[in-house]
Amino acid sequence: MVATISKTRSKPTRDEAFALIDAATRIADFGESIPCPRCGQPLIYEDIGNSFIVECTDETCIRTGCRGI
Ligand SMILES: [Zn+2]
Q1: Is the pTM of this model over 0.85?
Q2: Which residues are placed with Cβ below 5 angstroms of ligand 1, an ion?
């Protein structure tokens, strides 16, 4: 059997998660363009009500989110 390579996102490390949260704030507040801490591609910020997701443009790369405060 051949293992199929699934296109799933990898979990960010603690440092990467912090970088993503920081990037989310800067993108949301200042409209900055922040590169992914892992691969350097642009990050996407998505505001969903009282929470947000910030993720890499590469769909196999990292993503993190924050739920309502
Ligand atoms: Zn990336």
Answers
A1: no
A2: 36, 38-39, 56, 58, 61
